[in-house]
Amino acid sequence: MSEDETMLQDAARGFLDGAAPVSHFRGLRDAGATHDAALWAEMAAMGWTGVLVPEDAGGSDMGHAAAGVLAQEMGKTLVTSPFLSTAVMAATALRQIANDRTKEALGNIANGSVIYALAVDETHKHDPDGTTLQAVADGNGFRLTGTKGFVVDGANADRLLVLARAEAGLTLFDIPADRTGITRAANAMIDARDAATVTFSDVQATGDDVLGHVGDAMTVLQPALNAGQAALAAEMAGLATGAFGMTIGYLKERKQFGVEIGRFQALQHRAAHLWCESEVTASAVRNAGRMLDQDMANATLAVSLAKARATATAKLAVIEGVQMHGGIGMTDAFDMGFYMKRARVVAEWLGDYGYHAERVAAARGF
Asked: Which of 50, 153, 196, 323 is the most exposed place for a label (fewest CB within 10 A)?
């Protein structure tokens, strides 16, 4: 990492260890809360919410590699925040359009005063091209009708980026989440995070609500999805690191037959294998951030490789963590279960292993 990224990583870890350890997540879960407004305000004060916002809009514009550093550190302690939805994906989408309205919206993201959610998927799999939510022309605007599922941060969001199908093709809208005709139903996800089913019943959208051009949504949305997938891969890499650290600590402390179980060669081999997989994945994640910063138009291979590898590594980390902890690893009183549940959910968000493996294969000409 660069010197600035190393400093950012150290600062983030120092803050999160105090403000948002895993016990903080447990407290939110037990209280039935999915958002900590005070924590989000502190992140904004430190400039994290503006990591991808241009400087002239009030951000720091540190880039996608820096966003990945922050996401990875959040993953280590299962931090709950709308960072990916708002500071990464919404910010990336908005900055594709240079006008006064998007500049103001980016400024609101940077100062932490707005939360965005992406209303893209409609089935249990990530499939933007399969969008069926209708945007029917109505005078100078549109009427939106349909349902979006698994809208992460949807229950707490102030605004929604909505992908709809107009007569001219897929169109992206930026609308208030409380607009007449929008109904949000929070879902009880196994990772205790905010996701919602959002129903649009004859929702009025004006031409000004269109982000970009009618029928050309993916020009704006695809860079945002790539950015989100890379940052999510970084979070999953951090999750794997957090689970690995917990497992290694247990191997050093738990004794059987009078010796620490970490002295058993079979467990050492499994731990070494997991460490190697985590290191390779960390490199793939870092490369995805670099590619997005240097050549976003050609970053698909790097991003999908990172998301696929991070999905597999996080799965391995939590499975090994539970197994090497034995019976205690299956209990709610022990934190490893939180890592496993989060790994299962984010494996599906923004494309599962198969989705990204297919994109890698296509990019390589297969």
From this structure: 323
